[in-house]
Amino acid sequence: MPRVLGIDIPGRKRLEYALTYIYGLGLAKSREVIAKAGLDPAKKADDLTDEDITKIGAVIREGYVIEGDLRREITQNIRRLISINSYRGSRHRRGLPARGQRTKTNARSRKGPKRTVGAVRGKEARSAAKIAGR
C-alpha cells in the first residue's frame, strides 16, 4: 500500500481510483491530479515509484484542500451557520435535512430510526396505561 501525504491508498487498484480514497478527492479531481503530475491513470498504485508519489503529493499540496483541513473547514462553516441563527443552521442544530427535502416521510438518515408516539402495544402495557390514566 503506497502512502500519499500520510494516507494509505490501495495498491491493487488503478491510480485514478486509488486516489479517491483520500478525503476530498473524487474521481474528477483524481484525474486532474494525475494529469498535472503527468502520470498514466491506468497504472496500478503499487507500480508507483517514490518520485511519482512525491509528484502527486506536490500537486495535491499546492492546489487542493484535503483530509483534516477540509473536515475542519466544513465543520467551521456549519458552526458559523448555527451561530448566526440562519435557517440552515437551525436545521443542522435540530438534526433535520438542511436542503429542502420532505420530512413527513423519509429523511430517516438524518432523523434516525422511527419512534412511534401515542399507540401502546401489548395487552400488559395497555392495562398499565389504563391504571395510570385513572
TrEMBL record:
A GO biological process held by the record: translation
Out of the domains of life, which is the source?
A: Bacteria
Query: What name does the UniProt record give this protein?
Result: Small ribosomal subunit protein uS13
Cross-referenced HAMAP family: Ribosomal_uS13 (MF_01315)
Q: Does the entry feature the keyword rRNA-binding, yes or no?
A: yes
Family membership: Belongs to the universal ribosomal protein uS13 family.
Alphabetical GO CC annotations of the entry are: cytosol; small ribosomal subunit
Composition skew (Basic residues), residue ranges = 90-114
The protein's role, per its UniProt record: Located at the top of the head of the 30S subunit, it contacts several helices of the 16S rRNA. In the 70S ribosome it contacts the 23S rRNA (bridge B1a) and protein L5 of the 50S subunit (bridge B1b), connecting the 2 subunits; these bridges are implicated in subunit movement. Contacts the tRNAs in the A and P-sites.
Stretch list, region Disordered:
90-134
InterPro entries for the chain: Rbsml_uS13_C (IPR027437), Ribosomal_uS13 (IPR001892), Ribosomal_uS13-like_H2TH (IPR010979), Ribosomal_uS13_bac-type (IPR019980)
Quote the PROSITE patterns the UniProt record gives.
RIBOSOMAL_S13_2
Quaternary assembly: Part of the 30S ribosomal subunit. Forms a loose heterodimer with protein S19. Forms two bridges to the 50S subunit in the 70S ribosome.
Q: Which UniProt keywords apply?
A: Ribonucleoprotein, Ribosomal protein, RNA-binding, rRNA-binding, tRNA-binding
Question: What GO molecular functions are on record for this protein?
Answer: rRNA binding; structural constituent of ribosome; tRNA binding
